[in-house]
Amino acid sequence: MKKHLYIVLFAFLLTGCVSPLKQSWNNFTAYYNTFYNAKQSFSEGVELNKRQQPEIDPSRPIRIHPSPTDAGHPEFERAIEKGASILRDHSQSSYVNRAVSLIGQSYFYRQEYFSALEKFQELSQLSDGEELQKAILWQARTYLELELYGEGVRFINQELDFIDEWNPAILAELRSVKAQLHASNGEWGEASEALHSSVGSLDGNRLKARAYFLHGQVLERMGNNFQALAAYRLSSEIISEYDIEFNSKRKLAEMYRKTGDFDSALQQFRSLERDDKFIDYHVELRYELARTYQEIGEAQASVNRYKRVLHDRFDPPSNRIKAKSYYGLAEIYRDQYNDFQMAAAYFDSANSQSVDLTEMYEDVDAENIARAFGEYASLKQEISRIDSLLHLASLDPAELDSVLKRVEEQQLAQTEADQQANMVVSANESEQLADVTESVEFGFLNSNDPTRQAQASMRFRSIWGDRPLTDNWRRESAMIVSIADEVDEQTNQAQEAVAANNNGAAGLSSEIGVDISEIPFSPQEELIVQQNREGLTYRLGNLFFLSLNMPDSARVYFSDVIESEHNPDLTPRAIYSMIELEIEEGNRDRVQEYSDLLFQKYPESTFSKRLADRLGIGQLDENRDSLNTTEVLYSSLSRNIADTSYAEKAKQLKELADETPDEEKKVIILFEAAENYLKAAREESENGNVEFDYESEYWEEAGELLLQIEELAPQSERAKMAGLLLEEIRKTEEAAAYEQGEEGVVIERFPEDRYPSDPAGELPVCRDVGVQLNLAGGEARIIDEMSWNKEVRDSLPDTISYRFAINPDGSIEEFNLLTEGVSPEAEGDLNRAIQNLVFDPVGGDHSIRCKVNFPIR
């Protein structure tokens, strides 16, 4: 009996144990399968998302982590649903954290960034170790997509301080996100620093190639062209995506061009053009080759290549490439051929391509330049028309009749040709299609049929007329202008004879459609036409001065208006504009010349009063024949020389005083010049960190000027002030001599530890900040441009070194010669050449010191 009882109990216990084990196994397989399916859906969505990535725009900072697209949303939705079922039905499983991460990433790729951020923050509370680090990385990426750049940087900095031990790959990726946040906010220095510390540790070629490319873009914006070139080279050497591979190689070629290595640039562009893998970009590469030849200065080669790009029927360029090609042609005709009308036509073509020129050319206002040159073409054409009318008015009746007859003959011939063409076109439209066998005899679509070719030619002429098949057909002037220009100018005959002939000419003109009513036959009409011409000429001058920033061309047109004097109301305006131009250019003598002219010839004009008010010289004296222009020059000098340029200002004031006949004004100007020399001497001592030098040329100049004031006006108030300053200078000299002492011991007048310190400190050296100066054409170009003979070159060292202080924009703040043994004449030649140099921008916030070697041999 007991045996049977044990058997029953054993069976009952066995049944009770098996059920929980089976249930646990079923639970595990359920949430594992659910998570597997969720992950599978997520992977499919990511793959679809990657396939829809847009092409890289190298003009904007790229993303190391590309932004999500609209693809794969259903797959991400399924992943979210399955991940949520794990959290709902299996909240105690080990897959909870992974499910939360998967849901957050799915929201991220669906561009539901706030929901994604919430999930990643939840994951940060649940996880630790690498899971926590990945959650932080995804939060940072979400801030980037939300464009919360400042908040994203603060979040990353906080987490970097919070976690001590990071996985190197995750840390590098997090810092790369930080770099993208800085770059998106225009903080190039911080972005470069973050990339420099992270790019080498990134996992995968895809991230590395993109990181190096972004670093190149950042360095390029900082003006560090050589460093940018190195970054693009590193990106191009990594086997990665097709798009990033091509753009990195193209940017490498562009940086060769920017750094003046044109041979390498041409070689790189040609290599890309020959690579069939990049056949889709062949048009762009041909444009880049043309652009490179333009920057080299080979104008004709560049023009030929631009035209080849524009006229390629088998591989037509996009509107963007068309606009850039037309713009390049316009620059060549403007800057190298000096043909402004052709430049205007090409600028107009560039502006009509339905693209944003301002976006393509950030450093110049391309659209305004195109509009300005379009206005130039219109004004120039109208001036040419007026010149032709004036020329026709100067002809005698017989010559005018001859011109009109020639016009009649050409117009009649053109009318007959047009009528014949219209008849051919009409007849052709009524014909039936030829038999199919005709195509066998005359080629495909009868393209070799002489009759059809003639008809096509007639049809073309009926639409376009005799338009020449050249690029500059828009420049064709009106027929009457071109004919009139062929006739030699003759002496005017009596106006009565012209009037007598007028009726016959009018009758003839009515028959052939020539309107001669605008020809100015009377003196009054001629004066009106001349005034209109002057107005157009003045507008051209203003266009060059204000819109195109071409003062030399503006000066020509303003001078034309001033010299013609047909319009007394316009001439003073032109003189005033010329004064403004010369003031801006710093031409003191020309300012004086035109100010005298304005005050002498037009003392009552609005512009004379405006100039007087602007220069603060008071009411004009109506009775005097001329006005002393000392005030004009003084005002111009004060505006054009910075307050800190004491020595230069003092020199200019001294020269002005020498030219001033009025002794009272001369004393005032001399005193101000002396004050500026004293300021220059103190500045020299402070900036040079040297002891007081009472033998400085500035102190001597100041003393001489003060003595001159005492001699010129001994009883004046200025003379008393000059005497006090002279006494102060003598006391300072004595104190300085005493401090130096007979034994050469320097006595400090102020405790050294209390000297005020310069917050900027000494200028950093190029090699310390990793910057290399880049000069277009190289340093050897400067020596090659020197007109030194062999004897002079042989007398110089092999290399001449200079130290430069360079501003962030590449301009020279100051420079000094380091090499000894250079003759004063050669040094002067070099200094004059160097003072006009501009290096490539070096970036940063402060100036830097760099040593540059100029090779003589």
TrEMBL record:
Signal peptide: none annotated. Residues 50-70 are annotated as: Disordered. Residues 50-60 have a biased composition (Basic and acidic residues). It comes from the Bacteria. PANTHER family: CELL DIVISION CYCLE 16,23,27 (PTHR12558), CELL DIVISION CYCLE PROTEIN 27 HOMOLOG (PTHR12558:SF13). This is Uncharacterized protein.
